[in-house]
UniProtKB/TrEMBL annotation:
It is found in: Cytoplasm. It comes from Rhizoclosmatium globosum. It comes from the Eukaryota. Belongs to the class-I aminoacyl-tRNA synthetase family. This is leucine--tRNA ligase.
Length: 274
């Protein structure tokens, strides 16, 4: 990155820990023979989390698209930590981003970091979440290949209607579910995506339209995906109109700060810079 500072919205997706706890290990779905959420519900972690809600925190440039969340992505081989954010909350993100957050005053005493646990992305696959503004009561944590440890929180919330990367990854996961160690029930019910933004050139599912137009086949078509991302981002930001929720009918440029403020005021998001 150059000299500029990138301002992200950190969005808090709550881990449905009680749901995991109430499902015995032997009844859970498995990821590579390991029950979903085994690490998060291990006795030591549960003891450290006592009295706290647990959130995955995703960094996004497009808070106005949160109505379209269908899942959350992590990198399976990336290292994540569970960090104490306050007396009542713990957040899952990379250590790099947790340090930045602490220095930005998001955790109370600036610069202090209280780590409650360490895990890999694969430990989070299949974990159910409650995502703010999403049109589903429960979405799932899924693997994505291009998640960078060096950007944002290492957690990406997925909006397949308006993000070509997110859409193509879901398509890959459906096509090769066994290879990616995912259950179809974590992906298929959320496809095709529901429209959340109307655009003049690419209709109301801009990411889907551009992925089809450029004939993008998989997550590995990196150059075409970069092109698609650029096209969809510009179209959505400059010409998009919100189709759902409290700010329905408003242009994206106008709705974006309003939706961000709404999420922050509800305690469901924060500003994060790097
Ligand atoms: B965006 P920039 Cl709807 N690795 O959020 C890879 N990608 C990451 C990431 C990481 N560690 N952290 C965040 N991102 C994604 C929504 C969205 C995003 C839409 C459309 C486009 C879009 C829903 N996913 O991004 O390199 C996040 O996905 C395209 C610009 O800092 C974040 O915003 O410019 C964006 O990339 C940040 O990318």
């Amino acid at each position: 990155e150059g000299v500029g500072v990138q301002e992200y919205t950190g969005v808090k997706l709550q881990v449905l820990l009680d749901e995991l706890i109430n499902t015995p290990l032997e009844s859970r779905d498995k990821v590579k023979d390991v029950p979903v959420g085994q690490y998060l519900t291990s006795p030591d972690v549960l003891a450290a989390l006592k009295g706290k809600k647990l959130f995955m925190v995703a960094a996004t440039l497009r808070p106005e698209t949160m109505y379209g969340q269908t899942n959350c992505y992590v990198g399976v081989d990336l290292n994540y930590g569970i960090y104490q954010a306050s007396a009542t909350e713990a957040w899952i993100c990379t250590e790099r981003s947790a340090k930045n957050m602490s220095f930005q005053g998001l955790f109370g005493t600036r610069g202090e970091l209280n780590k409650l646990g360490s895990l890999k992305g694969i430990d989070l696959i299949g974990v159910p979440l409650k995502a703010p503004l999403a049109q589903y009561p429960r979405i799932y944590t899924l693997p994505m290949e291009g998640v960078l440890a060096t950007k944002g929180t290492g957690v990406v919330t997925s909006v397949p209607s308006d993000s070509p990367d997110d859409f193509i990854t879901m398509q890959d996961l459906i096509k090769k579910s066994a290879y990616y160690n995912v259950q179809l029930k974590w992906v298929e019910p959320f496809m095709p995506p529901k429209p959340i933004i109307q655009t003049p050139n690419y209709g109301n599912l801009a990411a889907v339209a551009v992925v089809e137009q450029l004939k993008i086949q998989s997550q590995k078509d990196k150059d075409k995906l970069a092109q698609a991302k650029e096209l969809v981002y510009k179209e959505g930001f400059y010409s998009g109109v919100i189709l759902v929720g409290q700010f329905k009918g408003k242009p994206v440029q106008e709705a974006k700060p309003l939706i961000k403020d709404y999420l922050i005021n509800e305690g469901l998001a924060f500003t994060y810079c790097e």
